[in-house]
Amino acid sequence: MTYINTTYKFVGTNNHGQEIADFQNASSRSFTLGLNEAGSFSFSLPLTDSKATPNNLAPGLTGTRIYRNNKVVFVGDIYTWKVNTSDEGAGTIDIAGNGYLRRLDRRIIDGTFTNAYSKDIIITLMDTANRQFNLGLTYGTLDNTYQRSPALVDKHLLDVVRELAEADGADFFVDNNFKFSYVTRQGRDLPNFILEYKVNIIEPTMEVDATELVNKVKIFGSTTDPSPQVTVTKQNDSSIYKYGIFNGSASYTDYDDSNGYLTAQANRILSEQATVPEIYSFIIIPGMVPSFAEFGIGDRVMLRINWGNLFKVNKLVRVTGIDVKIDDGGKELVTITTDKKPSNVATSQLDIIRRLTKVEEKQTK
User: Fold this and answer.
1) According to a count of CB atoms within 10 Å of the terminal CB, is the N or C end of the chain lower?
2) What's the pLDDT tens digit per position in 156-194?
3) In whole numbers, what is the pLDDT of the chain averaged over residues?
């Protein structure tokens, strides 16, 4: 087995990402990453810490950059803090925030578009938002998807991006350099990154959920109201043969099928929902290679589990959630979720750290 040493550093930044303070005494450190999510972070400082000042921790005006082994793994804005005191004179300040993607939620926008690509709609709206007062976001990769003609009234900019991405089957994110990207798929295929039970991961879970199974779908669309409704129906024959018919429908009133948009939506829904999803989560043994910092949200990695009759896995799975907690001794606890937005980890950090310590003790004997 190969191990690596891991060190974390939490650094304060101003609104433009320039570093202004090193939070050397940070404790209770954690952060989360999620597919098409802003992510979050939190940590605590002693109330008497010299860096715990209004200038360094002003909500909405300052942020935090997180380093793992001198590599930036998360950057975001501080949104809240809370002071806790005790009769003994000790006290802490608990700080929390979100990734830069949440900045899109600060703007309510309007706009009318005709046969515009998603990326052009986003550019127009973001340019307007930046002119109102600079969001500090620029552009990374913007892929062409489909044309549409939406009329947007009093919509949060982040909600608009989510709705476009859901319709396009696209992903979006803001990277650590303030660059917004809208892509047909975030992530890479990494078949050589093998995560195997009792080798470099422990405590795997598996959830099978057929509540959203759809193998015959009807898509409704039209170009203008009150034009005749356009419909497209598609089905997955192999899924119907296996499960029977599970009907579904969706409406895209701004579109017809002249450019294949409705057909593409039907095919996308079937590709995502015609099979019963298997959702996995697991904990990476601390210090093991490959570590989570070598792959990221959206990447597909090889998962191998052989446990009983039901829990047998040997396939590529897509990483959709990463939850990291760092204890006061510097040990990291990394929980990975695949193929679904991460849920809260029910087990306490302390209990898991204890079990991880036992795992390491067994490996060293």
Assistant:
1) C
2) 999 999 989 988 889 999 999 999 999 999 999 999 999
3) 84
Pairing of strands 108-112, 151-156: antiparallel
CA distance 143 to 124: 15
Q: What is the distance between the alpha carbons of residues 85 and 237, in angstroms, rounded to a whole number?
A: 63
Mean pLDDT of the region 107-114: 89
pLDDT tens figures, 290-306: 677 788 999 999 999 98
Give pTM, 2 decimals. 0.83
345, HSE (Cβ side, Cα atoms, 13 Å): 25
For residue 259, count other CB atoms closer than 10 A to its CB. Answer: 12
Amino acid identity of 177? Answer: N
Distance of alpha carbon 183 from alpha carbon 162, whole angstroms: 12
Which two tokens mark 270? 């079937």
Q: Provide the 10 A C-beta neighbour count for residue 217.
A: 23
Checking if the pLDDT of 80 tops 90, the result is yes
Provide φ and ψ at 210, rounded to 5°: -100, 10
Angle value at C-alpha 175, between 149 and 298, nearest 5 degrees: 80
Confidence at residue 342, expressed as pLDDT on a 0 to 100 scale: 37
